[in-house]
C-alpha cells in the first residue's frame, strides 16, 4: 500500500500514511471490506454464504466499536485534537453500523429463493459505507499518530533548552549537574525517535533518521570533551570554536529529526504530497 490505505484508488481517503503501524492496522479492515464488496459479484448465494457475510459484517462493526472507544479516549486527553478526532470517531461508528445493517439477514427470514440470494445487490450502499469507514478509521489513526509526533517535538524542545543551559555554564561542576539531566532527556529522545525510525515506511526517511540519530549519539560524547576542554582553557580560541561546532551540529541534527517526523523542510516549507482532494483543501486553507 502506498499513500492510499487500500493499496489502490478505489477507496483513497486522501491521507498519506507515513508509518508501518498505521498501515498494518488497516490491512485486516481492508481485507474484510474487500470480502464484503466482492461477494456481490456472485449471482446466487446459499444460506451458508449469507450467514458468513453477516458474520463478517458484524465482526467489522464490533471491531470498529472497540477502535472508536480508544479514539474517543485519546480525544478526551488531547484537547487540540478533540473536535477532529470526535468527528472521525462518529463517522467510523456510523459507517460500522451501516455495514452491519447492510449485511444483516435476520430481517429477511420471510424472503424466499431469489429474493434472499440477491438481497445484497445494492452495491452502492456498501461501497459508500466502506468509503466512509476506511476514510474515518484512517483519519483516527493519522490523528493518533500526530500525538506521537507531538511527543517527539516536545522531547526535542526539552533537549534544546538544556543544550542552551550547557552552552552557558561557567564551571565544570555546573556543567556536570546539567549534563546529567541532558543525558536523561537524550535517552528519552533516542527512544522515541528510534521507535519512529523503525515505523517509517519510506526507506530514505529511515536512513536520514538513522544518520541524524547517529550524529546526536556521537556529538553527545564529544560535547562532554569539548566543553571540559573549553572550561579548563577559556582563552583557547580553537577550544571555543570546537565547542561551538559540536553544539551547532547537534542543533542541526535535532532539526533534521523534526523535519523527518513532521514531513517538512527547513524554513517550514511543507513537502509536496501526492495530489488528492485532501491535499488540495489543505493547501487552500493555508492560502
From TrEMBL:
Query: Where does this one sit in the cell?
Result: Cytoplasm
Asked if the keyword Cytoplasm belongs to this entry, the reply reads: yes
Q: Which UniProt keywords apply?
A: Cytoplasm
Under InterPro entries, the record lists: Alpha-catenin/vinculin-like_sf, Alpha_catenin, CTNNAL1, Vinculin/catenin
**Pfam families tied to this protein:** Vinculin
Q: Per its record, how is this protein called by name?
A: Alpha-catulin
What is the similarity comment for this entry?
Belongs to the vinculin/alpha-catenin family.
Amino acid at each position: 500500500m502506498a499513500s492510499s490505505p487500500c493499496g489502490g484508488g478505489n477507496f483513497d481517503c486522501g491521507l498519506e500514511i507515513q508509518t508501518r503501524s498505521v498501515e498494518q492496522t488497516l490491512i485486516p479492515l481492508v481485507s474484510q471490506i474487500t470480502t464484503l464488496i466482492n461477494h456481490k459479484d456472485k449471482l446466487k448465494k446459499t444460506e451458508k454464504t449469507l450467514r458468513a457475510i453477516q458474520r463478517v459484517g458484524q465482526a467489522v462493526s464490533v471491531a470498529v466499536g472497540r477502535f472508536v472507544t480508544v479514539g474517543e479516549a485519546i480525544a478526551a486527553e488531547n484537547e487540540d485534537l478533540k473536535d477532529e478526532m470526535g468527528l472521525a470517531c462518529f463517522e467510523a461508528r456510523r459507517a460500522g453500523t451501516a455495514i452491519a445493517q447492510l449485511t444483516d439477514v435476520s430481517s429477511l427470514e420471510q424472503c424466499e429463493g431469489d429474493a434472499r440470494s440477491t438481497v445484497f445487490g445494492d452495491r452502492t450502499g456498501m461501497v459508500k459505507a466502506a468509503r466512509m469507514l476506511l476514510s474515518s478509521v484512517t483519519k483516527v489513526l493519522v490523528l493518533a499518530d500526530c500525538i506521537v509526533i507531538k511527543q517527539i517535538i516536545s522531547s526535542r524542545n526539552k533537549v534544546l533548552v538544556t543544550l542552551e543551559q550547557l552552552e552557558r555554564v561557567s564551571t565544570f561542576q555546573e556543567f556536570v549537574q546539567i549534563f546529567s539531566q541532558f543525558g536523561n532527556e537524550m535517552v528519552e529522545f533516542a527512544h522515541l525517535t528510534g521507535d519512529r525510525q523503525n515505523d517509517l515506511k519510506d526507506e530514505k526517511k529511515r536512513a536520514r533518521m538513522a544518520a541524524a540519530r547517529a550524529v546526536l549519539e556521537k556529538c553527545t560524547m564529544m560535547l562532554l570533551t569539548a566543553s571540559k576542554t573549553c572550561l579548563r582553557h577559556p582563552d583557547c580560541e580553537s577550544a571555543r570554536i570546537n565547542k561551538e561546532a559540536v553544539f551547532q551540529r547537534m542543533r542541526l541534527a535535532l532539526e533534521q529529526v523534526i523535519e523527518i517526523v513532521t514531513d517538512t523542510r527547513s524554513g517550514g516549507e511543507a513537502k509536496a504530497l501526492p495530489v488528492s482532494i485532501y491535499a488540495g483543501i489543505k493547501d487552500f486553507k493555508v492560502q
